[in-house]
Design goal:
The complex is a heterodimer of chains A (110) and B (111). Chain A is built from no helices and eleven strands. Chain A has strands spanning 3-5, 9-13, 18-25, 31-37, 44-49, 53-57, 60-65, 70-75, 84-91, 98-100, 104-109. Chain B is mostly beta strands and 111 residues long. Helix content of chain B is 0%, strand content 51%. Chain B contains no helices and eleven strands. In chain B, the strands form two sheets. In chain B, strands 2, 4, 5, 6, 9, 10 and 11 form a seven-stranded mixed beta sheet that branches. Chain B has a four-stranded antiparallel beta sheet with strand order 1-3-8-7, with no helix packed on it. In chain B, a hairpin with a 6-residue loop joins strand 9 and strand 10 (101-102). The model of chain B has no long low-confidence stretch (mean pLDDT 93). Classes of the chains: A mainly beta (110), B mainly beta (111). The A-B interface holds A 4, 33, 41-45, 48, 87, 89, 94-103 and B 4, 31, 33, 35, 40-45, 48, 50, 55-56, 58, 90, 96-97, 99-105.
Chain lengths: 110, 111
Amino acid sequence: GQSLEQPSEVTAVEGAIVQINCTYQTSGFYGLSWYQQHDGGAPTFLSYNALDGLEETGRFSSFLSRSDSYGYLLLQELQMKDSASYFCAVKGDSNYQLIWGAGTKLIIKP
Amino acid sequence: ETGVTQSPTHLIKTRGQQVTLRCSSQSGHNTVSWYQQALGQGPQFIFQYYREEENGRGNFPPRFSGLQFPNYSSELNVNALELDDSALYLCASSRPGDEQYFGPGTRLTVT
C-alpha cells in the first residue's frame, strides 16, 4: 500500500525552531508537498520539493531526500499563529493525485 | 483574483439521502480536485476533473460522483448517504500539475 508517516504531535516554544519529519512509501513519486491547516480551516500550500535538497521560503524551509523517501518541514522563529496541523502529501503514481499523511499537530507554548 | 469557494458551509443529512456540494474554482484554474477529510485525519482524494472530464479517481465507491461545468466550477454528489460519510469535504483548484488551492470546505454530518 501507499503510506506517509509523520509524528502526530510536536510541542515547541515561541521563538524556537521545530522540524516535522515525513517518511513515505508510494509506488511512484513526483514530489513532496507541505500544507498548513488551522482548526476549522482549509489546507494552505507551504512548499513543494520535486528534487533533493532544501527549499527556503521565509521562516519555512522544506527538505527532500528521494533515496531515503524522507522529507522534513523546518519552521524557524516560531510564532503563536504557527499553531496548526501540518500535512505532508506526495504526488505518487500520477501528477494530480495527492496522497496525504495524517498530519502533525504543532503546539506552541509562550 | 477570486479564491476557491464552496457551498454550503455546513449540511446535515439523514442516512440514505443524497447530497450535492458545490465548488467554484479560482480564476484561471481549469482543474478541480475533491477530497474527504475525516476528523483528525489527512484528506483522502476522491476524484479530479479537468476540462469537464474525470481525470482520476481515488478509492471511493460509485455513489460518489461529480461534474465539472464549462466555467470550471464543480459539483460533488453523494448518493445513499452512510454515517461514515460524515466529514469535511474539500475542493481544490489548480492548473494541471501545479499546486492546489483549497476552498474552506463543506462540513457534512449524516445522522
